[in-house]
Amino acid sequence: MTAAAVPAALGLAALAAGHRALIVDLWGVVHDGAALLPGAAETLKSIRAAGKPVVFLTNSARRQANLVALLDRLGLDRSLYRTVVSSGEAAAMALSDAAFCRTLGGRYVVIGRQEDGAWVHALPAEEVENPADADFALATGLLDDDTTDETWAPMFADWLARGVPLVCANPDLQVVHDGRLRRAGGALAKAFREAGGRVLLYGKPDRPIYDACFAALPDIPRRAVLAVGDSLATDIAGAAAAGLDSVLVTETGLPGGGGPAGVRPTATIPRFAW
Length: 274
Prior knowledge:
Elements: H1 12-15, E1 21-24, H2 40-49, E2 54-58, H3 64-74, E3 83-86, H4 87-95, H5 98-104, E4 107-111, E5 126-127, E6 136-139, H6 149-162, E7 166-168, E8 174-177, E9 180-183, H7 185-194, E10 199-201, H8 208-215, E11 225-229, H9 232-241, E12 245-249, E13 267-269
Parallel strand pairs: 1-2, 1-11, 2-3, 4-5, 4-6, 6-7, 7-10, 11-12, 12-13
Antiparallel strand pairs: 8-9
């Protein structure tokens, strides 16, 4: 089934008919960072009633327990999903290895919103405030609204001269937060990579993050899993890399924004609805 062949009114019930489980993005599909999106809980209840387990896969820099607690606060019942897999969890696990941290350097600086969890301040390395003092950088969540590629230029020049790598724990370029479009850690990583910098990326669209999802679905063949997301660049490109059919949610997700050349969803739907 191609996106062009899918009627606009078709929902997940028809699209998931040939699949046994779903990998669902959180931010922009289930919630907007501040509240559940309209109909999201009801849709998840319908998926559960159809006997299809759900794994949430998000590029949030928060760890799994932090995200489960957030979903609890937003009122989403834990019975509606099997687990949460996050780029933050993957990055935290990697950086908790002292030997790996030593290969990056002894000092690091965190770039991005600091509400992503205490793990970013508890690495087996020394945290510094000045990017010019860091041996490696860690990009986390939302970026300050007043930052641009131009404001980053002097920092990038210093990092390039010293060989400072950037670890990105949130590969999203932008997110819809409480109804407003905000830049995220992936924007910093993209700009630094384009400037010639070394970037270590954790999360979608890189293939390894999907292995954690498949591990939570050991009873489901991989080709029987359907991926649902709101971003061509991360959700749909990542699903393609993992060999999965995908559904792009268009109305509640990111405006515009293309993915890699040739990447298209299997189908599109306006809203996350059954």
